[in-house]
Write a structure and sequence with these properties.
Layout: E1 7-12, E2 15-22, H1 26-34, H2 36-42, E3 46-49, E4 56-60, E5 67-76, E6 80-88, E7 98-105, E8 111-118, H3 127-147, E9 154-155, E10 161-162
Antiparallel strand pairs: 1-2, 2-8, 3-4, 4-5, 5-6, 6-7, 7-8, 9-10
Length: 168
């Protein structure tokens, strides 16, 4: 565990995984993943569709000609969310992968967030890029649920991911 950011890396051959302790309740963390407002607060302001189980979410990124469509397989407050990637126009290898989010309250008032991107493996060409992206956005989730201000994607004109920096 990295004590500075409370993140633990778990390596499995079939999934990219991370655990992170958040200074917030599981219900608050769940809302960051399972509501459009929450997703806009840490990932991208351009979120469309529905967060309800059975629906599709569409994520767009300002200044980039790409989008991601996630089918919401499950959304069970306050513990679990499961998405299946229907399409990622920039990373077609994401199609069919699943993103699993789970949240568990801890006895000290924190919660543990677990992310598993099932099918995102080290053998994929995009793995290193995606690892950097997920780590960046996990920090954004933490900022959003702990301080009310995440670091969602913003176009800085470079064509690469840009997030505002906030003090810890």
């Amino acid at each position: 565990m990295n004590r500075a950011d409370h993140t633990c890396e778990i390596t499995t051959p079939a999934a990219f995984t991370r655990r992170r302790v958040l200074n917030a309740s599981a219900d608050r963390a769940f809302a960051a993943i399972a509501t459009s407002e929450g997703l806009r607060g840490w990932w991208t302001p351009l979120v469309g569709g529905t967060t309800a189980a059975g629906g599709d979410l569409r994520f767009e990124f300002e200044g980039l000609d790409q989008h991601i469509v996630m089918h919401v397989e499950a959304s069970q407050r306050p513990s679990d969310v499961l998405w299946t990637c229907v399409r990622h126009t920039a990373l077609p290898e994401w199609a069919g992968t699943q993103v699993s989010w789970s949240f568990q309250d801890q006895h000290d008032g924190t919660c543990e967030l677990r992310l598993a991107h099932i099918g995102l493996t080290a053998s994929l060409e995009c793995f290193e890029h995606c690892e950097i992206g997920w780590d960046r956005f996990l920090a954004s989730i933490a900022a959003y649920v702990e301080r009310g201000q995440g670091n969602p994607y913003r176009d800085d004109g470079s064509g690469t991911c840009s997030t505002a920096k906030h003090d810890a």
